[in-house]
UniProtKB/TrEMBL annotation:
Protein keywords: Iron, Metal-binding
The keyword Cytoplasm belongs to this UniProt entry's keyword annotation: no
Highest taxon in the source lineage: Bacteria
Record-linked Pfam families: GBBH-like_N (PF06155)
UniProt-recorded name of the protein: DUF971 family protein
Domain Gamma-butyrobetaine hydroxylase-like N-terminal per the UniProt entry, residue ranges: 12-89
């Protein structure tokens, strides 16, 4: 079943992609995280070959185009091949939330 966000916005101020899901949850995925999470054939090959990192910390997301089952993300490094299925974006958001929770519990 398709579980697409109700709202998708590029938040330049926080350098992250904002999404609001149908259950009311919101996620903010940093541009650099998204860039390095690209699953297109080209990026998968680069990861397998252990070439230079896909992402630089200051990479910017310039466009997020709805593409049926997900979003085509366009980055300012010229990369626009990645299509991120909703389910994948949801999983990235969940993983990131888990990491943030761990961070918080460590600082307590
Ligand atoms: Zn890619």
């Amino acid at each position: 079943m398709m579980n697409a966000p109700e709202l998708v916005a590029i938040d330049a101020a926080s350098a992250s992609l904002f999404m609001r899901w149908p259950d009311g949850a919101v996620s903010e995925l940093p541009f650099a995280l998204l860039r390095s999470a690209c699953m297109c054939a080209q990026c998968r090959k680069r990861k397998l070959d252990r070439e230079t990192p896909l992402s630089s910390p200051d990479v910017k997301l310039v466009d997020a185009r709805p593409s049926g089952y997900g979003l085509q993300l366009v980055f300012d490094d010229g990369h626009d091949r990645g299509i991120f299925p909703w389910i994948y974006l949801e999983r990235l958001a969940r993983d990131q939330q888990t990491a943030a929770d761990h961070q918080e519990s460590r600082t307590l």
